[in-house]
Design a protein that fits this description.
Length: 324
Amino acid sequence: MKPARLKAGDEIRVIAPSRSLAIVKGEQRRLAEERLVELGFRVTYGKTTLVHDDFFSNSIEDRIEDLHDAFRDPSVKGIFTSIGGYNANQLLHYINYDLIKGNPKVLMGYSDITAISLAIYQKTGLITYSGPHFSTFGMKAGLDYTMEYFKKAVLQDEAFDLEQSETWSDDSWHLEQDDRTFHPNSGYMVIQEGEADGTILGGNLCTINLLQGTEYMPSLRDRILFIEDDEESHPFSFDRDLQSLLQLPDAIGIKGVVIGRFQNNSGMTPYALQQIIASKKELNGIPVIANANFGHVHPFVTLPIGENVKMTVRNGKASVTILS
């Protein structure tokens, strides 16, 4: 089930199902809203989006009510999360999935929001989007590529290729907007060659693993798996988190794997990643690439979870196409 494409004049509702929007500086909030208004959207906010407790989050009841209000309101066409965090999975048991199924809309966010996105996709069949938070639009520099792929995913109907950005950065842009470092992008890292067609499933790996054994975990059968993690992950934790996912009974149905670029502080190296993938017998014979533009390194693409995708990895080169 696909939500309607966003268009000029649509209302975007900002909610905080993980951490509070209060954690984002006022200037960044102003710029983020300005960017969305420039695209022709009307921006509104959940009633408790700026409320926070000692953990810079909010009560389950308030977060659920803001989520339900956004899906219930016929004026709202897109729902953007404010930022990530650690506790979005607290909400899964309390979400009214029938309400969402009856009011399909664009739901956008990444990182901890992976738990909500995948749960909604599993329970309703609604395609959700692993893409920029509302706060991401408050980035002064380095947003062009992210904005381009946001438009391709939720404003346009055509298929599109995931071409690599010219540069990338993993600095703390939200702390030092005017002092950023961008590195040349050498493109995809090819680990295993092959061709595959499937549907997109993925997001933040350690958050996906929180869903294992629950009713909120989608099947891995016939999937192209897109996985990434942040700087809190390191080669050892990534290895075991991936192994855990591959031990699910339907992991045999994975058709290909696309790994997002790691942050420098993760300590992941090309050699370590190659060794990790080589140890996974479950991935033998399928294409695997890394250093893709999604996840916690900027800029990044918007991925429609549940959409069809094709990947071709031959002669040391890779291409990935999202099929509309």
